[in-house]
Design goal:
The chain is mostly helical. The protein is built from 6 helices and 2 strands.
């Protein structure tokens, strides 16, 4: 990515650039923009949505699906509830404007269109 002769010799391992003859530190998002790389947060969220669609279309006799659909005995702990994986998927899909994501995920073509929309959507980054 960077050649050693292009980087200034500093003890810090930060990426720097020259603007108007002045060295400055770059923000975290700038290398992604320079090299047209996808944002890592958006990439992870899109992969999570893709897995959610795959998971929902799985047969109900698969062990993972049985564990996910099982109802746990007892009450959840007191205080702020810990978010579950499904809660994060619900939130991301709501940002994309889909109300019933489980129905959409059963149709591969519709789900693929939603994932394409999610890749381009900037609102997923703010969460």
């Amino acid at each position: 990515m960077f050649h050693p002769q292009d980087r200034p010799s500093t003890k810090k391992s930060s990426i720097r650039s020259v603007e108007n003859g002045i060295w400055r530190k770059r923000c975290n998002y700038e290398p992604y923009e320079i090299f047209n790389e996808p944002n890592i947060v958006n990439y992870i969220k899109v992969k999570s949505l893709a897995w959610a669609g795959h998971f929902l279309r799985m047969n109900n006799d698969r062990t993972l699906k049985k564990i996910f659909n099982a109802k746990r005995d007892g009450a959840r702990s007191v205080g702020r509830l810990k978010l579950r994986w499904e809660d994060g998927v619900d939130q991301d899909v709501r940002i994309l404007g889909v109300k019933n994501w489980k129905k959409v995920a059963l149709n591969r073509d519709e789900w693929a269109q939603l994932l394409k929309k999610a890749r381009a959507h900037q609102g997923l980054l703010s969460q």
